[in-house]
């Protein structure tokens, strides 16, 4: 029989399952972010425990390892005062003539569609440390962002 038609098992043709990548740098979180991470740990622990087949259990355990690592390495950021842009603040600003509001949060809490961006995102990095009334550079443009207001979450 030709080697081209021989198949040892289905296992050799499956895509490999890699560990979920851990974002580089510190794992700063807001108190809300830490609670969300803890909820994910509980969720995936329950999934792994109740999995009906080996594949589902392995996937749940992989996700559980990720969330346990994130929970173990989480550092709750100092409470924001609202005097300057930092993790744990809601920022109103103008960019390209449009007014927007975002919340700056940890990696795992980020949800751009809901207006929450990670502190390591380029937009957040451009604003961190700025105060209300300041202009910051962004996207290669000088004074592209005007900070209108800052409030703690």
TrEMBL record:
<feature type="region of interest" description="Disordered">
    <location>
        <begin position="1"/>
        <end position="24"/>
    </location>
</feature>
<protein>
    <submittedName>
        <fullName>GreA/GreB family elongation factor</fullName>
    </submittedName>
</protein>
<feature type="domain" description="Transcription elongation factor GreA/GreB C-terminal">
    <location>
        <begin position="83"/>
        <end position="150"/>
    </location>
</feature>
<feature type="compositionally biased region" description="Basic and acidic residues">
    <location>
        <begin position="1"/>
        <end position="18"/>
    </location>
</feature>
<keyword id="KW-0251">Elongation factor</keyword>
<keyword id="KW-0648">Protein biosynthesis</keyword>
<dbReference type="Pfam" id="PF01272">
    <property type="entry name" value="GreA_GreB"/>
</dbReference>
<dbReference type="InterPro" id="IPR036953">
    <property type="entry name" value="GreA/GreB_C_sf"/>
</dbReference>
<dbReference type="GO" id="GO:0003746">
    <property type="term" value="F:translation elongation factor activity"/>
</dbReference>
<dbReference type="InterPro" id="IPR001437">
    <property type="entry name" value="Tscrpt_elong_fac_GreA/B_C"/>
</dbReference>
């Amino acid at each position: 029989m030709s080697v081209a038609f021989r198949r040892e098992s289905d296992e050799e043709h499956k895509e490999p399952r890699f560990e979920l990548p851990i974002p580089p740098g510190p794992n700063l979180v807001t108190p809300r972010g830490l609670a969300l991470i803890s909820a994910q740990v509980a969720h995936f622990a329950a999934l792994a425990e109740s999995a009906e087949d080996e594949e589902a259990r392995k996937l749940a355990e992989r996700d559980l390892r990720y969330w346990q690592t994130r929970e173990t390495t989480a550092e709750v950021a100092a409470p924001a005062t609202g005097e300057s842009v930092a993790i744990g603040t809601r920022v109103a600003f103008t960019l390209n003539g449009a007014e927007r509001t975002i919340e700056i949060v940890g990696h795992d809490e980020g949800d751009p569609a809901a207006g929450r961006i990670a502190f390591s995102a380029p937009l957040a990095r451009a604003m961190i440390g700025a105060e209300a009334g300041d202009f910051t550079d962004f996207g290669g443009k000088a004074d592209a962002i005007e900070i209108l207001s800052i409030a703690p979450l």
